[in-house]
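Q: What changes when 26W is included in the input?
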Amino acid sequence: DNTTPIATPEHTVDGFVREFLRELNFGQGTDLTRASVNDKYLAMARTVRHYLMVRWLATLRRQYQLQAKSVAYLSAEFLLGRQLDNALLAADLDEVVEEGLASLGIDLAELREAEVEPGLGNGGLGRLAACFIDSLATMNVPCIGYGIRYEYGIFRQTFVDGWQVEKPDNWLALGSPWEFPHPESAVTVDFGGHTEQYTDESGTTRSRWVPGWSVLGVPYNYMVPGFENGRVNTLRLWSARATRAFDLEIFNAGDYAQAVRAQTFAENISKVLYPEDSTPQGKELRLQQQYFFVACSLRDFLDQVLPHDFDLRNLPDRIVFQLNDTHPVIAIPELMRILVDERGWEWSEAWAITQKCFAYTCHTLLPEALEVWSVELLGKLLPRHLEIIYRINEDFMAELREAYPDDELRVRRMSIIAEYPERAVRMAYLATVAGSKVNGVAALHSQLLKDKVLHDFSDHYPDKFTNVTNGVTPRRFVRLANPGLSELITSAIGDGWVTDLDKLQELEPLADDADFRAAFRQVKRANKLRLVDVLAERDGITVDPDTMLDVMVKRLHEYKRQTLKLLHVVTLYDQVTSGAVKIEDVTPRTFAFGAKAAPGYRMAKQTIGLINAVGRVVNNDPALQGRLTVAFPANYNVTLAEKLIPAADLSEQISLAGKEASGTGNMKFALNGALTIGTDDGANVEIRELVGDDNFFLFGLLEPEVAEIVDRGYHPTSYYEENRSLRHALDLIASGAFSGGDRATFEPIVSNLLSEDRFLVLADYQAYIDAQERVDEAYADTEAWTRSAVLNVARSGFFSSDRSMRDYIDRIWHTHPVPPER
Ligand code: 26W
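A: The predicted holo structure follows.
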């Protein structure tokens, strides 16, 4: 029986050491005396992989036998973070490896730092995908993640004179031990060309695609291990190569240089992750990326994963394609093309099956973030898909005209094809029409989707709309990131919480236990000390562990309002330096920021410059006696988040109400015992409901109030004129106090706030300052603060991505866990 797998190395220190040395010798071609840190890291990582291999093969074999319904999670981004610790945890190997390496005189901690995290995502959406596949593996649910193996992930951020400068993220430079390339399973993806009409055997006129060029997609498999459950799911990321036809051209044409250029052209498709977050640019290469990975994935699933005799009429019993935002929505016309053009199905049959196979998650409320593709571009790159989209829209328009015979305005509004400012395909509408379900990512967000963004559609298809509140994996963000808290929790309630986060409720009575609170504070302090070391080493930043750690980490975007946080800092600075407030009366705080700005987003880059500029002045002012510090480590990423979040006292979630779809950082902070200062937005609403008003600092306008103010006409200057401390803060920035006297440097930020202020920073300023005063008061009572922090942990179990996955399964996927063979 050739399916009998090789044996797993012995789960002992000796077993590990033997396998490790074998990998070092035979895999890396070196020995202990000569090995570099990278040699040792690669050998260790490959060794760890061996321990998971039997489970992976068993998972694949069992899936092939059972043909259980699977989820295919289609996502242009998977922001995985480092893999080593997660693999060690899944295989319960951390102690064995640490001891084994120590016996060879190697420090595991040093090897850990050799891993470059795969930054294959921008922010929340990509990290969410990574949390979801972790949960599905842990819950024994069959899932395959499909995405793109970008050669360069999200850029590495550096600061030059406080301004962001982007550097390429060459994460593959030293090789990645976690991937399994399968060039032999490459699939072909076509682009361009034209369509033509022809008559088939039955005399029917049909259309077919005559592509102009093509590339190969090479799959790279990654293990997605469940937590100590014997299951390993697969993440399959696609890398673009030139086709053999290109190689042939080299030979035939003799134009070597031209042929190599063609190769480069093909490989460009998976070269780099687009760093735009929430403002799509409509770039051709991005559409190429989207179609590339979706076409590879469908082809792979239909031709490779499914058995060869599979009857596609049963496809909905075997798969659901979950569309992570609109980025993979081109999969809808692609499946139609396969069924109608390649398999010769009737349109209506194909449409019925397609509708059952897709579901769509929307991750935004910003109108400018809703992706559209110009008909001109789509027609050039994917002419047959454009025809199919037109046909889908034709049928849909007919359906609408029948439903609303006297409301042509509504029918036009709902068209998948927009006419202005240019003719374009609205991908969110296409996904809504074609998908079986549409979900938002937090209760408020899903409600606003129904009431506003997709209101006509929720009228027409009321049953399609549902909510699944986001979640985060407790394995990475509590168990691994916060070992101190994990031990404390486990000592109190056992270790069942790691896979059943609702168990954290059992901590609730301990909030009133003074010893437990003291132990909890000790953990927080140890986490701060760990962070102090990290920031000193990584960024040369000095942080005082005895200050309140107030953290705002997330992408830089105007709607998230980093400038509001900054106005708070500037106000405190102004109060102290003007003598209005004595420094002894200021709560010592460290304001930590982490944020990348999209390279082309001017206002966001300005804000980064301003945070650093304010930091420079505040950190160097003797009047502040080091009691107020701004810490802005460059290149915030998953690895840094894992150090920052467990150390935080205060979590800043201050987006304008109605703009942040959910947020997931907010959940990570609450689970790690930080209190939130936040607006009534996204999942903050649910966090506050669960942790209780007394343990959450709510401020700011509510979404309906925002809508009303905007409708009436918002005038930021009136807030400026009527609020002295706001005026002082803005005037200080405008005066050049943070830019060496140069008034021009930050003029764009100030004038934007005073003229447009799209996200009502000035309107929420005073409420924010007041809430921060409440924070100071609460923080002064150490015992009460700790009690609130413990209650935040105890009441946040809902925000496990395991719970999100249960909701997707119940409301959308209707799949089932498949326990491993025992
Ligand atoms: C370049 C075009 C583009 C457009 C939208 C890129 C990325 C997007 C995403 C929708 C932005 C995004 O990451 N949204 C975030 O998704 C998280 C997970 O659901 C939520 O927690 C955040 O609130 C939401 O902003």
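Observations recorded in class: The chain has three domains: 1-66+90-116, 72-82+123-154+169-469+807-813, 519-797.
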